[in-house]
Write a structure and sequence with these properties.
Largest sheet: 3 strands, mixed
Distance between the termini: 45 Å
Radius of gyration: 19 Å
Helix content: 55-70%
Shape: globular
Strand order of the largest sheet: 2-1-3
Strand content: under 5%
Low-confidence stretches: none
Number of helices: 11
Order of helices and strands: HHEHHEHHHHHHHE
Oligomer: single chain
Mean pLDDT: 92
């Protein structure tokens, strides 16, 4: 079966190729400016957008599990491996596909920023700082960009684009086993995002809605239904994530209400959408409780 190259190999390939390097630097610059810098500026200076609390009562059914942090942190490497696969498998055509894919990830950050710059959002993240991973998260992420969740958007986008590229190259059937593995990987990362309390169920629904409006041909309502129906299924965890997967997990009786709420909110966003796709999310954020920012403290 075809496999995915390492993020290190992919990064070397990207930044040593003239066309890909340009896309790579654009992506890094966008992430630094529109994700990290904007959050810290909002923490340190006055005049920041309002901050909404994005938690929901159903989040209480999802236990905090620090073991999932390694899976959560893999979301960047997740889409980078897909870019590397395109380069490795398809030669010159793959370079063009990888260039388009990296550009689309950059566009995702810019799209989400259209919401963030008007209304920030946060969740009740535990002050858990045991281990290097959690200390790094708390140091680098002020946790003010929750709706829509870029973590969720990026892994779902990675799966959707991989599927589209395989079809375009006439290899949809041949690469189906790898597509299934990427699907399970995306699903496991979304669960990890919730288990380490970086996001709420509200953030997942908002991310699926935003992604559907960003790339309608690639991520459809049917895809949203499929992913939601598989959340917290606890089976077929990718081998690379299995060592970090463990109890406590969501109790079985709580799984249907979580799935129903996420899919229902996703559909509510879609039903109220107009020409400006950000309006339903901003209206939703405007009706949530506000958090008073503490200047100078992430």
């Amino acid at each position: 079966m075809a496999d995915l190259p390492s993020p290190g190999w992919t990064a070397l390939r990207v930044f040593t190729h003239p066309r890909l390097a340009l896309r790579g630097f654009q992506c890094v610059g966008t992430i630094l400016g529109k994700f990290f810098f904007f959050q810290f500026r909002s923490v340190l200076f006055s005049g920041a957008p309002p901050i909404s609390r994005a938690d929901h009562a159903l989040d209480e059914h999802i236990p905090f599990n620090p073991r999932f942090v390694r899976i959560y942190l893999d979301f960047t490497a997740f889409w980078i491996r897909i870019a590397g696969f395109l380069c490795l498998r398809y030669g010159k055509r793959g370079i063009a596909l990888a260039e388009e894919f990296i550009g689309s990830v950059t566009a995702l950050y810019r799209a989400a920023f259209r919401v963030y710059r008007k209304n920030l959002s946060t969740t009740n993240r535990p002050k858990y700082k045991r281990g290097f991973s959690f200390r790094l998260i708390h140091a680098l992420d002020p946790h003010l960009m929750c709706i829509p969740s870029l973590h969720v958007m990026i892994v779902l986008h990675g799966y959707s684009k991989f599927r589209a590229y395989a079809k375009a190259m006439g290899e949809a059937e041949l690469l189906q086993p790898l597509a299934d593995r990427i699907f399970r990987g995306a699903l496991t990362i979304i669960e990890a995002v919730l288990y380490v309390k970086q996001h709420s169920v509200n953030c997942v629904a908002a991310a699926m809605y935003a992604l559907g409006r960003f790339t309608p041909p690639c991520f459809t309502e049917g895809d949203a239904e499929t992913f939601t129906a598989c959340l917290f299924g606890e089976e077929d965890v990718p081998a690379e994530y299995a060592p970090f997967y463990g109890p406590p997990l969501v109790e079985k009786e709580n799984i249907p209400p979580l799935r129903e709420y996420i899919l229902g909110l996703y559909r509510r966003f879609g039903d109220s959408a107009g020409e400006d796709w950000t309006a339903p999310l901003l209206d939703f954020l405007g009706n949530l409780p506000r958090r008073v920012p503490s200047r100078g403290r992430p």
